[in-house]
Amino acid sequence: MTPDLSELVRTIPNLIRTGKIAEIRADKVRVRLSPSLLTTWLQWVALRAGDVVDWCPPSVGEQVIVLSPNGDLTQGKVLAGLFSADSPAPQTSLTIRSIHYPDGAVVLYDFGRHTLSAILPAGSSALVKADAVTADAKETTCTGNVTIKGNLIVEGFSALNKGAKVLGGGDGAAMIVDGDVQAAGDVKAGDISLRRHKHGEVKRGDESSGASQP
């Protein structure tokens, strides 16, 4: 059978075409291939869609490739991820792997400098939920307040450089110290100074003083 050249001329250009996403609906999109040609709803290609599922939908205006078996655009699959003048590459370094979000958030790893950063916009929050979390680092710095709603157990030395306040819980003592206590300054119990208070019932000589009065 002689091939239908007109059909080949029609289908071959449709095997691989580029365009921009015009509409998106969950796992399907419509692509504008030319001012007069808009595809039907087509599936877009995700990185994984098996036991592991990756979900990162393309966006309206994103430049894509439409791969159509036998040149049939109604059976096309959409492969996203082409940089364009409207959406240029956000990095020039070849050692950076980064994800940029429309609200300004950036998750970036530079394997040339061995640095990982997650920068979130103002008003954002982050949640890690697990039975156990381990931060294995020589140094960890928190620049803001830290609230711990459970018990705090410190197995190393603690230095409180600008003071500490302890509030008692229930009827027990606010703090129990199992060991000696050293203070470079004064220690007070209520209005009584350990260094400056005076004892009553004191006689000169080798006698001991009575208990201090509250």
UniProtKB/TrEMBL annotation:
It comes from the Bacteria. InterPro entries: Gp5/Vgr_OB (IPR006531), GpV-like_apex (IPR044033), GpV/Gp45 (IPR013046), Vgr_OB-fold_dom_sf (IPR037026). Signal peptide: none annotated. This is Phage P2 baseplate assembly gpV protein. NCBIfam families: phage_P2_V. Residues 25-83 form the Gp5/Type VI secretion system Vgr protein OB-fold domain.
